[in-house]
User: What shape does this take?
Amino acid sequence: MNIKEIAQELVAGCRERREVENLDKLYAEDAVSVESVDNGQGREAKGLDAIKGKHDWWDSAMEVQEASVSDPMYHGDDRFAVIFDIKAKEIASGSVFEMKEVALYHVADGKITREEFFYA
Assistant: This one.
């Protein structure tokens, strides 16, 4: 897949709530995911299994009430970014919060190799 196909599929998967299903299709086995802050699990998840673990944690800890994702914004032939707007409820506390984040994706050899998240 080329970068536009990867970016479009990532966005479509997020919009259709099939992010987890896209992990094997879009991510390299040794991909790295980097958060801007340590939320108690460290800032970096290394490898596809660790990234799947992040998704498992989010899905078990948060209930997404509203979500939108922008169209992809490209930077050359190896990076793209999207903006996420999310309203969610923390299941344990019942606390509702809104967040905006920019996600920057690095692509090589037809797979996402690195993702970095920036929070407002």
